[in-house]
Amino acid sequence: MAMAAVTHLQLLSPHSFSCSIHQQQTNYSSFPFLNSLSLPPPFANSSLFLDHQSHKSSHFSHGRCFWATLSGQKRFQGFRRCVAELAAGTVLRKSPRDTNVLVVGSTGYIGKFVVREVLKRGYNVIAVARERSGIGGNFDKEQTLAEFGGAAVCFADVTDLNSFKAALEAQGSQIDVVVSCLASRTGGVKDSWKIDYEATKNSLEAGLAMGASHFVLLSAICVQKPLLEFQKAKLRFESELQACDKISWSIVRPTAFFKSLGGQVETVKAGSPYVMFGDGKLSACKPISEADLASFIADCIHDQDKVNRVLPVGGPGKAYTPLEQGELLFRTMGKKPRCIKVPIEIMDFAISILDFLVRFFPSLEDAAEFGKIGRYYAAESMLVLDPKTGKYDADGTPSYGTDTLEAFFEKVVREGMAGQELGDQAVF
Ligand SMILES: NC(=O)c1ccc[n+]([C@@H]2O[C@H](COP(=O)([O-])OP(=O)(O)OC[C@H]3O[C@@H](n4cnc5c(N)ncnc54)[C@H](OP(=O)(O)O)[C@@H]3O)[C@@H](O)[C@H]2O)c1
């Protein structure tokens, strides 16, 4: 593809824009590559104006001025990318009631909160669900429809692109933004590639076919150090999304969810000690609640400063090591801390045995992977990894929201763990 640096870009109407390329006066025909340019919606059938006049003072006066950001400050290496951003800018300027948001993975722990939050903000939501959804397929169609009152629900198979596209077409609404909260429910090797990569990619393609110009991806902070299959699958999709010149994107990489830190509440409440690996300080995280993360994801639909950005995000307050999590839990229950510290080498031993056995019994592949997932979370922090030092950086991990781990522990000690079940992902 021919490349050009766009130095000025200005929206003239919802369907046309002017821009300067390499700061030369130019016109459409002098850039042959533009003739074959297929523009993303809403410019698909629009005329293209190229203008050497850099109108520094734009006559648009909208608050978050999209083109002001572009004007002369950034140099865009791909013209199509630039136009895709402009298209996203148009979406960003649409009012919520004119914006159709497709949510895939809507029936998951985070997806449910995203549907609620996006509806609350006044967007039109199309939630994609399976006919039986939730942990263990416990929810039927009626329950899903009741759960998502206010949203349109599209029952579809995201793992099959053609039938997924057909289901969306039958739904009939054009789509502006896709939000993906899809994830393998097991974290197994094949399922991770099927969902975190293939089904998520299907959502991109189906969304594009229905006119989407922005894609918000729920990923994970741990992809910074990809040792596990689900992380590699997520990263592959992340990089393909970033390379796609037909759509703009926001990649959200959260730290640990509350559910992942609540696994020992019931046992500790019943009198057992809190179990941790090593000295209990091998890792740390800044946990974030479902509601706060859903709010951050919803921000990505409209916030210009979140477009084409990889966004690590944690909850409010400090980073907690497992030792501190255990101490906090005992404090919440008004009990004296009682901990068991397990050498991490025990996990390494178990993993090496499973890895050996997998050579003869391929069916143990997932068991070995689950062991590695457990080992990973025992020793790796869910914080921003500083590429220069190779160390995790609690201060460099952005905080968002208001729900604290302390308040979460208080709630689950009082009310139980309903809604915080790990389901098939018993290890994370
Ligand atoms: N746990 C953590 O601490 C943590 C931290 C950071 C990031 N993350 C990441 O956050 C993401 C979302 O997590 P979550 O806990 O919300 O996930 P979840 O509760 O397991 O939800 C997964 C969603 O994907 C859908 N899905 C799974 N397999 C499917 C299939 N074969 N066909 C159709 N849909 C399928 C599920 O639909 P059904 O309801 O029909 O099964 C559900 O809507 C994951 O990518 C995870 O890696 C997690």
Automatic annotation (TrEMBL):
> Know the name of this protein?
Uncharacterized protein
What top-level branch of life does the organism fall under?
A: Eukaryota
